[in-house]
Amino acid sequence: MSHNPDPQLQYLIQQQWPTAQAAGHFFTLPGLSGQSARITSEQGTLLARRAPQAVIPFVERQREYRLLQKLQVSQLAPRPFGWRDPWLLLEWLPGEMLPVSAFSQQRAAVVALLQRLHQQPLTGYRLTLTPLLQRYWQLCQHKHWRWQRRLQHLMAVGEPHPLRLAPIHMDVHAGNLIVTTDGLRLIDWEYAADGDVALELAAICAVDPHQQTEWVAAYAQTMQLAPARLQQQIRRWQPWLHLLMASWYQLRAEQTQDETLQQLARASWQDL
């Protein structure tokens, strides 16, 4: 627990809790992309997400705030209360994180969540992987030869035409699912944008590869898509996604010097 003197965050808290007698207590939370804190006072509990101090492509708290504003009516995500660089202030979702072992078991609930998300109006923030991958290439100091070869190949082929364009979360896994009294809710929307639903499924299948057939079948049935066509589109996206994951590991390993991330980066390049 600590006191946060950041005047930008204090301003946001004061806007949300104008009658609070104190700024609240700050509890730093673990995370890979940036600093987050739980703020408690007699007024309630809030979540503050700070912009990463090191550049992470596509991660921008102002964009995240605006996107969450657009998704407010869906009740899929925490309510955004305010943004003031570098802080995003959000509703704190009471509940427990979904255990990793329960991710596959909760497939029906997760697919129902995705159905609601993918039926929302477009947010206006389009995700295109080509410039995103190029940005990772520019930012990383160590560039594996497999990386350049794969990036050039994908750029020559071009991104798949979307099977169905919709708002997608792009980081759906057990750690970003909160079990609340109202059902599952999604957190950590920093990579969310408008993209192909098949790319979302490809990301989920990368998290739970042994259950890929089941995920594809459940989603296709729910969204009235042909399973074979969805599976084919997922296969088109998989090399893009693999390179994106490897690029993310490489950049974050360089920025943090974290041994686990360094191992994941090395393993990703070997897999390519």
Task: Describe this structure as you would to a colleague.
The chain is an alpha+beta fold. It is built from 9 helices and 10 strands. The strands form 3 sheets. It has a 5-stranded antiparallel sheet with strand order 1-2-3-5-4, with helices on both faces. The protein has a 3-stranded antiparallel sheet with strand order 6-8-9, with helices on one face. Strands 7-10 form a two-stranded antiparallel sheet. Strand 4 and strand 5 (87-91) form a beta hairpin. The longest helix has 30 residues, at 227-256. The N and C termini lie far apart (42 Å).
Strand content: 15-25%
Count of beta strands: 10
Estimated radius of gyration: 19 Å
> Can you give the mean pLDDT?
92
Question: What string, H for helix and E for strand, traces the elements in order?
Answer: HEEEHEEEHHHEEEEHHHH
Shape: globular
Report on the biggest sheet: 5 strands, antiparallel
Give the terminus-to-terminus CA distance. 42 Å
Structural class category: alpha+beta
Strand order of the largest sheet: 1-2-3-5-4
Query: Uncertain segments of ≥5 residues (pLDDT<50)?
Result: none
Helices, by number, come to 9
Classify the helix fraction into a percent range. 40-55%
